[in-house]
Amino acid sequence: MTYLDLSILNGLGKKSNKHSLANRLLIYILLLSSCITLLITAFQLYFDYHEESLLVESRMLQIEKSYHDSLANAMWYLQIEQIESILKGINTFEDVHYVSVKIKDSQTYSLGELRTKNIKRYDSEVLLSMDGREIYVGSLSIESNLDGTIKRLSNKFYLILISQAIKTFIVSIFILLLVHYLITRHLKTITEFTKKIDLDGSDDSLELRRARGTLPDDELDNIVNAMNEMTASLKKSAMERNAAEAELMLSVARFDRWKASNFIGIIQSNDNGDIVEANDTVLEMLGYTRAELLDGKLDWTQLTPPEFAHLDHKAIEEASRMGYWVPFEKEYLHKDGHRVPIMLGGSIFNASPGEYIAFIVDLSERKKNEQRLELALKATESGAWDWNIQTGEVHFDRNWLMITGYEAGDMEPHISAWEVLVHPEDIGGLKETLNTHFKGDSAYYEYEYRLRVKGGQYIWSCDRGKVIERDENNAPLRMIGLDTNITQRRQHEEQLRRTQKMDALGKLTGGIAHDFNNILGVISGYSELLAESLSDQSKLVGYAQAISHASGRGAKLTSKLLGFTRVKRSDPQVLDLNSLLVGQQDLLRKTLTVRIQLKLNLGSDLWSSRLDSDDLEDAILNISINAMHAIEGRGELDITTRNQRLDFIEAKQLSLTRGDYVVLSIADSGVGMDKDTQDKIFEPFFSTKGEMGTGLGLSQVYGFVDRSNGCIKVYSEVGGGACFELYFPRYIEQPRVNALPKHDRVGELEGKNVILIVDDEAQLLDVTKEILQNQGYSVVCAQSGKKALDILNKSQVDLLISDVLMPEMNGYELSALVKERYPTVKIQLVSGYSDDAEKNIVKKSKQANLLQKPISSKDLLVRIKTLLDEELQG
Fold it and tell me: Given its phi and psi angles, is residue 788 left (phi above 0), alpha (psi -120 to 50 degrees) or beta?
């Protein structure tokens, strides 16, 4: 007997008497008799109703025939009163409630009320016989109701129903008494017994009180025997069932909790790939609804990308062999098409039909974090390491290997393999910093050191890490960290340091050059005046010329200083470096002498660049002379040109903007330079030639390249020669020649114009004034811009000559005011040095022809004459 059987019996015993078998049997008999009675009555009523309906139809047909002829005549002759009389006559018949006549092409006449229920309708055409033919004169409609018929049938129905009910009640009572005596009283005993069955109590048996005599066992006896056997069997299996139910409920509850998990997906599938069940986590993970699951739209073979199919087959093979498979990572296809990374583990759910239960963990967030970390490490050129301090074992990730250039098998995974890569000068400080962190004296470990990469060269690395595991004695067990390639940062820092140093030196030398130019201007001016006044004394003229010559040498020296400081004026032109080198090669060969072979490797289709040709020639010559001194005995000097396109990273390493550049490379086979020498070669006055050198050659080159918006890089090793690479921006516009107007007239330089000279150097004012007055000019002097404006307010001036660098108001500010207030006054600016702020003003000024101090008297007079002649020509 099963648990279900017992439930039925217990339920039967608990039901009330009105649901007993005898009562139900009585009800069934009554229902059956009633149904038969109703069925017979219904058939009888149907036939009676049908006969009554036919009778009504027959009556309406007789009425139509009776009134047809008279109605046809009345309608033909439009005898309205006759028609109405006929309608009244028809309407008096039994069951007729409505009659209407429609005359052809005329009105409709009716009597009575139309109904919609329980009616019979008769429609006929009204024809008039005339001259042997029938003429259609209209139509007749008669409606009869069936109310009387229905009332008669209703009375008959109740009579039949009552008689049948009495008969059925008598038969039912007899059957009930008979069944109660033979069956139901014993069933009640059986029911009472089943109520008292206690699976955990005594072993009572069922007995029926019957006068059986020698009669053989009937069905009730068989029931009694079966009940006694069932009771014994139930008592035996009850305990087993209760234990199994408890375990089952526990398993179901546990599985329901797993299934309701919001972070672990659970699916049940078969060998065909059909997913027959899944929790909400899986559905949300893959974008499907439970309705789609129930419709059979989820199939793990379709959810799996082809490249992971072999892993699924391997998992099934493992499950068939071991009952489960080892968890592995794969991807599922989301409903919208994107891929979902997961970890999949599972086991056999039901071995016979080949069903499996699988547990799924969504790895999307972890994968995103891994990708973010990977991108961050790549972007910062960082590599991670994991160090087991007790064993010395170190794991370097692939980013660390990529930075250093090593392969996974190149390095032993031990701390000693890393230590040998650290620069010997850095290992001591590194270990000291590391030990400080091991002791707990620092929150984390950080140290910058040089690390040898696979090619043998060193890169700068910033090593950061932290101990994440310690033992009970606070001894470090495990440490993790990052190595970041900071070589580029170090290079930029070094370049910034050099730039700041050069800028400081530039400002210093520029200031010296400015003051020195003023002094040279005074010396040069007075020496020229002295030479003119002593023209009849040749010896004294020679002294004056010597002074002037010495002043010129000083001017060249200051020119070199200004070239280093980036403030030297240049005259850039669109140049073809190849053509310039071909034109300069003879001079270079003579300079290098026969012991040094000059080789030109000129690139084809070389781009143009906009440079000052004189400065470029000086730069090439300076580098070549340095190379000559660096080559001991015979050697070579290779000059190469090429086009090079720099991307963002390459340009950033050179402190340039990305784009196209013309590269001039000058390499020698000399003794080379160490790092300290390379750090100082562009500093002014630094020289490796002792008294033979001025220390200004390469500083001039540096200033020229810087002014040209390029850069210069030096590559050298001791004993390996040196290579200077000069990068110049490509000139992409069409060459344009802007020729300045020249004063070609040869003749007298005298004039009668009024000239205003402005300079804060009093001696320069005096000498310039005397030079101009000797040529017939009227000269007015001012030592500041404010005084110059006062003079212009009171006097007529033809030409303004002003120094640039002056206190309170500089020359550009003064010239702007003069240009605005006195537009007819010509302006000429002179300068011995201009700082960055004034260079910006130069770009905005319309005065392009700036004269550099010291100025010879002839150059000054020619420029003045040119400006004043332009006014006359205008």
Answer: alpha
How many angstroms separate the Cα of 114 from the Cα of each of 71, 120, 125, 140? 21, 11, 20, 14
Would 377-485 and 570-729 be classified into the same CATH topology?
A: no
Over residues 686-704, mean pLDDT = 66
* Domain made up of 497-559+743-873: CATH architecture: 3-Layer(aba) Sandwich (3.40)
Angstrom distance (rounded) from CA 66 to CA 668: 146
Measured over the CA atoms of residue 164, residue 170, residue 173 and residue 177, the dihedral's sign is negative
* Cα 199 from Cα 727, distance rounded (Å): 104
Domain boundaries, the chain: 1-196, 261-362, 377-485, 497-559+743-873, 570-729
Which CATH code fits 261-362? Answer: 3.30.450.20
Q: Any idea what DSSP says for residue 181?
A: I
Q: In the Cβ-directed half-sphere of 439, how many Cα atoms lie within 13 Å?
A: 7
Identify the pLDDT of residue 866: 84
Cα dihedral value 450, 453, 458, 460, nearest 10: -40
Q: Which amino acid is at 627?
A: A
The DSSP secondary structure of 251-297, one letter per residue, reads: HHHHHHHHHT-SSEEEEEEETT-BEEEE-HHHHHHHT--HHHHHTT-
- For residue 679, the model assigns a pLDDT of 76
Alpha helix positions (H), 603-728? 613-630, 648-653, 675-680, 697-707
Q: For residues 670 and 630, is the Cβ–Cβ distance under 8 A?
A: yes
Query: Is the N-terminal amide bond of 741 cis, ω within 30° of 0?
Result: no
Supply 430's token pair.
């590194």
Q: Do 490 and 498 contact (CB within 8 A), yes or no?
A: no
In this predicted model, which residue has the larger pLDDT, 542 or 327?
A: 327
Q: Which residue has the tokens 């006449």?
A: 109
- Crossing angle for the helix pair 21-76 and 80-91, nearest 10 degrees? 160
Phi and psi for 99 in degrees, rounded to 5? -145, 140
- DSSP H helices, 565-598, are 577-592
Q: Which CATH superfamily is domain 377-485 in?
A: PAS domain (3.30.450.20)
Extract the tokens encoding 607: 């781009």
Q: Which residues are within 8 A (CB) of 180 and not within 5 positions of it... i.e. 6 or more apart?
A: 22
Q: Render pLDDT for 380-405 as a digit per residue (tens, 0 to 9).
A: 778 888 999 999 999 988 888 888 88
Closest CA to 852 of 514, 417, 433: 514
Q: In whole angstroms, how far apart are CA 468 and each of 389, 443, 460, 478, 480?
A: 11, 11, 26, 6, 7
Give pLDDT tens digits for 136-181.
888 888 888 887 778 777 777 777 777 767 777 787 778 777 777 7
Give the architecture (CATH level 2) of 570-729. Answer: 2-Layer Sandwich (3.30)
Beta carbons of 779 and 771 less than 8 angstroms apart: no
Q: State if pTM tops 0.85.
A: no
Provide the CB-side half-sphere exposure for 111 (13 A, CA).
15
